[in-house]
Amino acid sequence: MLFTIDPSDAMERARAVTLLLLDVDGVLTAGELFLADSGEEIKAFSTLDGQGIKLLQRYGVRVGILSGRKSQLLSKRAANLGIEIIIQGREDKLDALNELCKKEKLDPSQIAYVGDDLPDIQVLKAVRLGFSVPNAHSTVKEVAHVQTESAGGLGAVREVCDFILQAQGLYDDAIAPYL
Fold it and tell me: What CATH topology corresponds to 2-173?
């Protein structure tokens, strides 16, 4: 991971995270949109990311989605992963974050966010810990506290999940059943 803040500060911030919010296109996917002639949308999701999300949830960190686009496919993927917080079709992501915090009785200081493009910047600035991916817009990378090594859709979310688990002292327990 690449840090724009001191790595120990990033770890400290991650210790307080109770919710990881994720953008979708460019973060949970590689950012490509595949559209069939029928109008059907096709997305590719990383199984590494899915496993990381499940581990994080198993150890008490909730995971949610905050996307500017709407997709039935995304709703299905979120349901498969047990993600209950799904906000779609919101270009005004900071307003959506504020509404979510009010509804869930959360403070942005409890939230980490992963984004890759301009609509994500205000959320990255508002939350405790902001992550970007290497394929993010350059301005987003400057604003984020941490940049993953893996690209969006190719394990970036798994890196973030592992980082949070490590910061909270849960990583060894999380992977122990698989060793």
Answer: Rossmann fold (3.40.50)
